[in-house]
Hints:
Helices cover about 75% and strands about 0% of the residues. By secondary structure, the chain is mainly α. It folds into 2 domains: about 1-85 and about 290-328, no CATH class; about 90-290, MetI-like fold.
Amino acid sequence: MGKYLARRLLNYVVLVFIATSMAYLLAALTLNPRTHFEGRNPPIPIATQDRTLSNYNLNDKTPILERYGTWLSGLAHGDLGKTWAGSSINAEAGRRMWVSGQLLLIGTILGGILGIAAGAYAAVKQYRIADNVLSTGSFVLLATPVFVLAILLQVMASRFNQAVGRKVFEYSGQYNPAQAGGWFSHAGDRLVHLILPTITLTLAGASYLMLYQRNAMLDVLGSDYVRTARAKGLRRTRALRRHALRTALIPSVTLFTYAFATIFVGATFTEIIFGWHGMGEWFVQSIQANDTNAVAAITLFVAVLVLVASFLQDIIVGFLDPRVRVGR
C-alpha cells in the first residue's frame, strides 16, 4: 500500500508541473495585457508600455521561454508574481482562498454526504414513493442551472424577509461591513450570509451524487456476495452496509473528491450572485483582464487541489477495496 501511494504521489506531482506549465504557456501566448494601454488619451509611449509590462513579466516582446523561465524561477522561491494592478498574487490568492474555503467547504461536504445517503436509500427503496420523490427531485435540480437556483433562493429569501417584517436571510456579501467589532463579533452575521450560498452548493452537489450513488448501489444489491452474506444469517441492514454500500461507495468517492477539488473555481456563478469574492470570480476577472500571472497562479492552485484530492481518493479507495492494499 505504501509503495502504491508513493508511486501515485510522484505521478501526480509530475502531472501538476506539466499542467501548470502548459497553462502558463497557453495564457502567455493568447492573453494580451497590452490592451490595457489602448484608447488612452494622450497615448502612452511604447517604451513606457514595454517597461511596465516587463516589470510584471508580461511583455509580449520578450521571448515566451524567457518569460516562462522567469515565472518558474519565482515559483521555485514561492513567488507567484504580481497581478496586472501591481498587487502581490500570493496575498490576493491567500485572501481569495479563505473566502472560497468558507463558502465551499461546508456546502460541498454537506452535498456529498446528503447525495450519497439519499442515493443509497433510494436504491434500497427502488420504485417506491421515496425513490420516486428523490430521483425526480434530483433530476429537477440537475436540470436547473446553478445561477437560476441561486436567484430563486434570493427571491424566496427576500419575500420571506418581507413577510416576517425583518431581515432573517442575508443574500449579498460575506458580512455586514457596517457592523462594529472584529471577526468573532461578526461570526453570527457571517453565518447568516453563509446560509443561502451553502444551500445552493449543497443542492447542486447532492443532485448528481444522489443519482450516481443510486445507480452504483443498484448494481451491487443483487451481487452474489450480498446474497451469500444474507444466506449466512447476516441481517439485511448490516449486509447492505458492510458489503453493498462499501463497494458502491468506491465510484462515488472518486467522483466526489475530484468535484471537491475543482469546485473552488467552479462556483463562479454562486460567488458572483451572492457577492463572495473568491477564486472562481477572480479566475473570470483575470481572463478578462488578460492577466497571465493570475491565470497561471489559479491554475496551479486548482492543479494542487486535484493532486491532494487524487491522493485522498487513493487512500479512501485503498481502505474500501482490500485488493488495492495488497497491491493487486
